[in-house]
Amino acid sequence: MSDSILDKIRSNRKRTVVPSREDTLIAPKQESEQITQQSTPANEPSKETTGDNSTLEELKAELAKIPPTRRHSAVVLDAEIDANLTRFCKEKGVTVEVFLEAAWLQAVASSELMEKILVEAKCRYDSRKLAGKLRRLITMLSGR
Question: In the prediction, which pLDDT does 103 show?
């Protein structure tokens, strides 16, 4: 019975007929490639190809001058510091990652600054460790 209802629905629907069209964006490119291939001898590279290759090589050479990057694990920050740092970096037109790189380079260059940073980092590390222990104890005592 359900098959007959389905057949009725299918027979009653009217589909709009869309006329086929030529894709005008692709056709001219194919024609120009055929013309280029016909006019260029097989043993000589076309000017376009050598121009593209030299541009590509120039770009690769320029990229090689820039230090490579690598993804680091997700960074967990204090909520207030995260908000302030994100806002600050947005205002200054840099990303948080680039700011941290620059801060690291400045800290490495100054042993006094590095010591101050390490003292603060150790205090924060101890605080985070304590917070983790407290969360674990709360979870254990709440019976989850």
Answer: 95
